[in-house]
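Project standup — Tuesday

K.O.: blocked on the structure for the chain from last sprint. Re-posting the sequence here as requested.
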Amino acid sequence: MINSKSNQFKQLEAASEWFAILSDEAASEQDKQAWLKWLEADIEHQRAWSKVESVGAMFDSFQQQGLNTPVKQVLDQSHARQVSRRQFTKGLFGITAALGLGWIGWEKVSLSSMVAVWKADFHTSIGEVKRFTLADGSDVWLNTYTGLNDQSNEKMRAMSLISGEAFFDLNEAHDERPFLVSCPHAVIKLTSPKARFCLRHLSDQQAVLAVYYGQLSFSSLHSKQSRLINAGEEVYLHKNASMQPQPVLAMYESWTRGQLIVDDMSLRDFINEIGRYQYGHINLDPSLASWRVVGTYPTQDIDTVWAMLETAFPIKVEKIMPWWINISAA
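H.V.: unblocked you, prediction finished:
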């Protein structure tokens, strides 16, 4: 399986390089003939080239809709001659590999969902953490691959979390309008003058609400009942129900400082958590999955995380290739 994926990536990388060469206005007839020779040499070359072309077709579709997507940005940069061939190839290859092999959740996330995140009023890409200031002076941090819309009007201040994770630091504003945050599972309302809380959309049709300061109320989308949640509590939200509040975890706040603080988390869950900050696949030996992890880890320096794990546990972290990491017993 690894060898198969490795070969696909090699072919995609080569196809992306050829795409960059042929996209250059300086491409010669010799370049075109060499490309044809490469294309005809192997059926896998033709399949890789087809994937690269599909990215270009997707770009055309997005461009017609007036969207500003990563695909559009890569191609626009190439045509504007603002980046080198190597930079262009790297950008296109990253997009092609992600879409072609599904290693950033493409198989689980619909195209419409990805476009919704890219079009959101506030958004981040994979591995990116950003801080934004709202109109009332409050701050909101967006974690890796997050989309947040501002739906405020004259009657209320309203935010909608499309995907990912947002941390709100709400000041005591002179704005009398109520403050609401919605997600696919629930609506959260500020019930104290100010608050600090995190709302995260989970992949298993749940959301988690973690409160660090102040008080909030929340209600499921199809429930008329509301419940209060106070500082120091977190709760898992479903579409029609919610679980009992539990003591809040530090991890839902620590990421705003570029840290992942964990306390007695399984290695499997830890790998899933840290894996959100990078492209690619992390293959963990199932026999190591239940090992327990404690500590503070940098979310913006994944190589340091691997070194820390190798120091703490008898494991070996190997980069089979840049997009495939293998973790096994040492």
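K.O.: great, moving the ticket to review. Residues 2-23 form the longest helix (22 residues). Residues 58-83, 98-108 have pLDDT under 50 and may be disordered.
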